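=== RUN LOG ===
request id: a7f3
mode: sequence -> structure
chains: 1
length: 238
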Amino acid sequence: MKSFRFALKSIVPIVFAYVFVGIAFSLLMTSAGYGLPWVVLSSVFVYAGSMQIVMVTLLTSGVPLAVVAVTTLFVNARHIFYGLSFIDEFRSIGKKKGSFWKYPYMALTLTDETYSILCALKVPQDCDKQKVEFYILFLCQMLWVVSCTAGAALSEALPLSLNGIEFSATAFFTAVVVNQWRESRSHIPAFVGLASAVLFYFLAGPSGMILPALSLSAVTLMLFRSKIPVNLPEDCHE
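=== RESULT ===
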């Protein structure tokens, strides 16, 4: 129980972020005509945070599911690189008796927030570090599922007017971009993304711009990766 309590204490800094974004996503889903079961299923199996907000816009715009899937892969591909720094540790957890399922589960539930927590994690000697890591990932996903479910249930139970709620997605990502601009050491990714979006907006139109813009951005950033400084937490795994 000490490991569980320590994990619970470790996720406190991100609780409000998960709760408010989860509720915002569920309100967007219900306003788009997707009921409580869809909200719960997407929060459990998609579990992509801000990408789920983008997903609502894509679905309501009639974008094919294949495009939604590829877009999600592009947007969340950074999690693959996060996982590389923990792959040995997650694999060792999965090798324990009865814990084979924890290895893929922990790899799939690693998010921006949980990655930051794990990187800075300093576990007391009387706690099991591997249990703490698992509990952190599990508790964060459960927090997300509960937040999404609560928001959907609230919107169905109360006569709330959701007119204009779709603008919350625009406001959310505007705030994210501004924050990233202020904290990033390099603005090259922002300029590349903006240029790619504008270019394909005119070449392919609003409905066909997403994949080519993301593809061009990814290729360009790979070519200029040596010129883009990266900040990682000092305590993170090498």
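=== NOTES ===
The two ends are 30 Å apart (CA to CA).
The CA atoms of residues 104 and 172 lie 30 Å apart.
=== END ===
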